[in-house]
Design goal:
It is built from four helices and no strands. The chain is mostly helical and 85 residues long.
């Protein structure tokens, strides 16, 4: 996995939620235009979130719990030691 591919994985939540700074966003989008595997990863992740959103409408998970889960996922992605550069 290249360094830029790893950055896509680490920044996917910020990318999808439009929370990245301009330079990171430009770099990430340039990489997505050149890397079909990362583009597929992002598209699959977006689809998964869309499907989860439909399920969430029928769930009883509070916004507070969802926010805590989001933070845990972000933390796990950033501290993941199984991703090699």
């Amino acid at each position: 996995m290249s360094v830029m591919c790893r950055e896509v994985v680490e920044n996917i939540i910020g990318y999808i939620e439009s929370e990245l700074d301009g330079e990171t966003l430009r770099d990430l989008e340039a990489h997505l235009h050149e890397c079909p595997e990362c583009l597929e990863f992002v598209n699959t992740y977006k689809k998964m979130l869309e499907m989860a959103g439909k399920l969430r409408e029928r769930s009883f998970v509070s916004p507070e719990v969802r926010e805590k889960l989001k933070k845990v996922l972000q933390s796990k992605l950033k501290s993941s030691s199984h991703l090699e550069t």
